[in-house]
């Protein structure tokens, strides 16, 4: 893994043109090191989702620079020819809802991005089971998504996001549907995985329960990011605290 | 790479199977319609095959005896038999009518055959029970499809006939089963009126001074006799001697006998190209309508199934699935649906065919063509769903 996880410099995104143009992102600067988990917070309409879509190579930014590892992937235009392969091989996604594929079992849900990347089925499934073991859901490897609890589904979704060893994982409000205990468990897993696989993880969240656990936070307001030092509270201590 | 379509089908197999069964019934109707057409063509061919003839000699400038009425004198066969290249010649009459069978009517083609032996053209070539006609009157050989059994009595016009033999798959070009009776009886059946009508005709003839002159006795009897006999047949069936070309023999008959003669190929063209052409077009229209309805159903089902997976498709696209993989998944599902439908349709048509009143012939090549048509329809029908899937924005998987 290169020295950088992901680095973003002066990223901007403008929707529309002329009088109706909207600057969703004006000046976004971020840097997340491998093995680090940072929070991205901000009010509704601040540009969180737009930033996530830019980072995920789902939409094209309007300006700025984006580096993944040591590779420049955007500097006013995409520097990679196959955006789909970029998303598949170098970016992991964890969504607010797990969005597992309902007709695949847990192992194949996790292995699917690896299979899409051309890994043979056996190797992809072996890798998937390693991740499921690390996330403590290996015993549900043959189950269908509908047979899993919410927490199990989210752990499977995390495993899917990590299966191709991406340098960066984008987690979009991964704890929103979970109670405090499960939400903190997910954050602990993300931290463990980030360390274990040297992955940079950006967690977009509104969740007051987990915000104190981040050591670093990016606050986005009106399309501009501000770096803040987080409380970095121990997840175990948070979990033991009485519910608000 | 795993088969996403296969996994989805296995996951929701009930939905696919039940939808496929519904589609299958429609495909079954389509295959049966094609089978009805094939049956009509086969009936026409069977009629020609079973007649045992190489040539059909009919009234000049008619398409008889099956497609048009034809009437020629019943002594023409002697002259034809004497011609070069003719091995056998025999008179034949055809009359499609309702035949009484107990309390019910049976539609049948009553065929009058000349006295002789089974090898003579027009005779049923083989029997499944009983014997051939050996007496000159009041015996019949019936096709099994008439429902008659050996020893049954058939009423044709005023006469009763005893069934002495049963045959199988002897049908007219309309699929009506045949009843064979002696030629003389058949000629009478074509001509014979009821008793009241005969009395009326005799009275009118007697009242006509042209036929009933006091000075010329015997004229009235001769005229009356001519009115109650029928010297006509519908056709003369000819078998050509080995080494002679049917067309050459037919040319001679046309030239010297001033009659029209058709070869087997010409007669088949008349039956298939003229007699059942309208029915064939009708069936063709039905097949087109059924194909369009099938395509609409498959398109609707696949489109609905695809819309139900928009979020999954967005996730698949976001994690790097190629458009062609998603399109392939939809096409495979459409083909699977079509295949299930075809299997159900084929089974339905196969088991349903014997219950149709007309002969339904399901040919393997028609089934193969049907399978290819179903595959093509499914691929075309999945285009709408593929367009919808390809329009899905991967960003839909990300909130906001």
Number of strands of chain B: 12
Helix content class of chain A? 25-40%
Strands ordered across the widest β-sheet of chain A? 6-7-8-3-9-10
Strand content of chain A: 25-35%
The tally of helices of chain B reads 12
- Termini gap of chain A: 40 Å
CATH architecture of the domain at 35-49 and 82-207 and 220-240 in chain A: 3-Layer(aba) Sandwich
Mind telling me the C-alpha Rg of chain B? 31 Å
Within CATH, the superfamily of the domain at 35-49 and 82-207 and 220-240 in chain A carries the name P-loop containing nucleotide triphosphate hydrolases
Quaternary assembly? heterodimer
Rounded average pLDDT of chain A: 87
Please estimate the helix content of chain B: 40-55%
Count of the domains of chain B = 3
What's the arrangement of secondary structure elements?
The complex is a heterodimer of chains A (244) and B (400).
Chain A: E1 6-15, E2 22-32, E3 37-41, H1 48-55, E4 63-68, E5 71-74, H2 83-90, E6 91-94, H3 106-116, H4 121-134, H5 150-162, E7 168-172, H6 180-197, E8 200-204, E9 216-221, E10 224-229, H7 235-240
Parallel strand pairs in A: 3-8, 3-9, 6-7, 7-8
Antiparallel strand pairs in A: 1-2, 1-4, 4-5, 9-10
Helix pairs in contact in A: 3-4, 3-5, 5-6
Chain B: H1 4-11, H2 13-51, E1 55-58, E2 72-73, H3 76-81, E3 86-101, E4 104-113, E5 129-130, E6 139-143, E7 153-156, E8 159-167, E9 178-182, H4 183-191, H5 195-207, H6 219-227, E10 232-233, E11 235-240, H7 246-257, E12 260-263, H8 264-275, H9 277-307, H10 310-318, H11 323-352, H12 364-391
Short account of what is shown:
The complex is a heterodimer of chains A (244) and B (400). By secondary structure, chain A is an alpha/beta fold.
